[in-house]
Amino acid sequence: MAVKFVEACVEKPDETLPIATKLQWVGSFAMQAPSVRIHTVSREQKYERWGKEIKNLPVMLIQGVQDRCSEADKLVEIAREWLGSFELKMMKGVGHTPAYERPQKVNKYILDFVYNTVLSRAPQ
């Protein structure tokens, strides 16, 4: 199960996921106590609290178009419902891990977002 999930995290695992990285990712999953793994997927979310607070915050979502772990169109639909407005970066040729697959591009998105939402509005 862990190997399939890890391989699904990138668009082309045979090309972009070195065996050492794959083993690290699988190992981090395998080393979790079963109770932690279960809690991760079954814990109750406090939507009422963060749902109100997040509407007042600037948000950028970075999503891989070829994500095999999540359905991008459904994630965007949910984000629109919860956030209202947000900045969206859909990355072609990228799976579930944009920061791993295209780190320079993701870093640029983040730096631009921080500059445009925080630094450009700061008092001079």
From TrEMBL:
This is Uncharacterized protein. It comes from Hermanssonia centrifuga. It comes from the Eukaryota.
